[in-house]
Amino acid sequence: MKLADAPPPGWYPDPAGTSRLRWWEGTDWTDTYRAPPTPSELEIKASHQHGGPVPVVRPKRASEPATEHGLTRRDAEQIIAEVRQVARSEVNRAADVFSQRAQAATRQIQPLITEYTTKVKRWFRIAVVIIPIVVLSWVIFEAVVQVSFFKWIGERIDSLSG
């Protein structure tokens, strides 16, 4: 085929037989693919055929072929940068919401900690008072039991000997 007979640059059905379109740069096929046009794109094209020129998606420069969706690399990078910026702002917003909720939960937990700490302190104070009383009572009981036991043994010994 002569170069003069070659079709103009544009999107054509892939000669490999896939359902995608492939970019023909006028002399050779590129490795740039895109999906076939959607019904809405076909409607737009049909409406422009009746009313004026059809907007054709073409790469801006030969060194910058369009991607699958007709965007140049620079356009894709700009879209990616915008998406990253929006994602970062959303992450920051979510972090702020999380921080607010964590602070609110901390304020709710603090009274619980104080309440249980107060109960533990109260039981400890009660134990500090009760334990010495119990120990002192036990010591007194043991002393009384020993004294009465020794009296009883003494009386038994006296009754045996006398």
Highlighted features:
mainly alpha; rod-shaped; 3-stranded antiparallel sheet; 162 residues; 3 strands
The main β sheet shows up as:
3 strands, antiparallel
Broad shape? rod-shaped
- Placed side by side, the strands forming the largest sheet appear as 1-2-3
Number of strand segments: 3
Ranges where pLDDT stays below 50 over 5 or more residues in a row are none
- Give me the number of helical elements: 2
Give the averaged pLDDT, no decimals: 81
Structural class: mainly alpha
Strand content: 5-15%
- Helix percent band: 55-70%
Question: What order do the helices and strands follow?
Answer: EEEHH
Radius of gyration: 47 Å
The rounded distance between the terminal residues' Cα atoms is 150 Å
Describe the 3D structure.
This protein is mainly alpha-helical. It has a domain at 3-69. 63% of the residues lie in helices and 9% in strands. It has helices at 39-51, 73-161; strands spanning 10-13, 21-24, 29-34. The chain is rod-shaped and about 150 Å long.
